[in-house]
Task: inverse folding
């Protein structure tokens, strides 16, 4: 019995004007697959007519401010992503401005307008490949951040974007025909925003979130901000919050009542016991001493005396709740 020929591996490339008809058909098909069950037929038809067609996609492909990537397999398009310069909502620009860097003082949010796959391509890793290409395209457009809108009732897409490093920064209205819907606004920094690309194995964690119990949240937030750490607004509220130490290490400040929601065990009394030892590497001995001095001036206390081991200099402090932080830097001889 003859067997069907094996499919070729998908290939990602930048779309050209000649792809307009196939791209329009794919866009209409994937939007319908995703949203037809949750929208009135007349609203869906109005949206498809307004958004997808040879004329619309030709104009997008000719626009220098738009980059369209397509995934092609066995001569047919199976997925696409569109990245463009567009006016960003206020909540996006505000969040982007808080993560500017010295090398990129002006935040430039670029929109991931669309990313869709045919249903048969779900779960194949093609979405992650398109996302990687979208990030590179956004950088090519001069972006410092990549943002998007995703329907609040699309949990599969939200989970995918969160796994890809996006965080929620707000919401806005999106119309499908005459139906006003709510999209979550998600954003992630790009390498050009001062967050260098990180090499990580697929599926492996690439960020660390340390949850610590605090007795007085405002006091603790003020303390960590005084140390120079950055409040993460999308993970912070009036009663709990997050500070970024680096772009991969974060501290979640949880009042005792909230912390108890995460564990049935008793919260450690830091005056009597040690729950863990947290250590940060600094660039220099001066940086170590400055951070300790700032901690002491901001409501912290000393944890141990400074020590010079010849190959490494160490010091430490306690935050207002008694959580210990060790600081160290290698001496010049050990790093040459």
Result:
């Amino acid at each position: 019995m003859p067997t069907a020929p094996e499919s070729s591996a998908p290939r990602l490339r930048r779309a050209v004007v000649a792809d307009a008809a196939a791209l329009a058909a794919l866009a209409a098909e994937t939007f319908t697959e995703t949203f037809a069950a949750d929208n009135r037929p007349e609203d869906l038809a109005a949206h498809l007519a307004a958004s997808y067609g040879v004329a619309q996609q030709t104009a997008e492909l000719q626009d220098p401010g738009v980059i369209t990537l397509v995934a092609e397999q066995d001569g047919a398009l199976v997925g696409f992503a569109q990245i463009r310069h567009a006016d960003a909502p206020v909540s996006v620009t505000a969040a982007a401005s808080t993560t500017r860097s010295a090398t990129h003082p002006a935040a430039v949010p670029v929109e991931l307008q669309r990313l869709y796959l045919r249903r048969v391509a779900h779960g194949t890793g093609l979405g992650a490949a398109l996302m990687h290409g979208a990030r590179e395209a956004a950088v090519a457009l001069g972006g410092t951040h990549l943002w998007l809108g995703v329907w609040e009732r699309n949990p599969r897409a939200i989970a995918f974007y969160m796994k890809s490093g996006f965080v929620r920064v707000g919401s806005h209205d999106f119309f499908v025909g005459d139906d006003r819907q709510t999209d979550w606004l998600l954003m992630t920094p790009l390498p050009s925003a001062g967050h260098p690309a990180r090499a990580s194995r697929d599926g492996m964690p690439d960020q660390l979130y340390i949850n610590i119990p605090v007795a007085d949240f405002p006091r603790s937030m003020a303390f960590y901000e005084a140390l120079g750490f950055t409040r993460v607004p999308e993970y912070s509220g009036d009663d709990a919050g997050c500070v970024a130490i680096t772009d991969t290490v974060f501290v979640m400040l949880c009042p005792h009542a909230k912390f108890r929601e995460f564990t049935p065990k008793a919260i450690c009394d830091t005056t009597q016991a040690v729950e863990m030892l947290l250590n940060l590497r600094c660039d220099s001995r001066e940086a170590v001493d400055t951070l300790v001095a700032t901690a002491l001036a901001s409501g912290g206390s000393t944890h141990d005396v400074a020590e010079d081991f010849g190959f490494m200099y160490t010091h430490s402090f306690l935050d207002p709740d008694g959580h210990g932080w060790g600081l160290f830097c290698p001496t010049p001889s050990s790093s040459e």
Q: What stands out?
A: The radius of gyration is 25 Å. DSSP finds ten helices and 16 strands in the chain. Residues 328 and 336 are 17 Å apart (CA to CA).
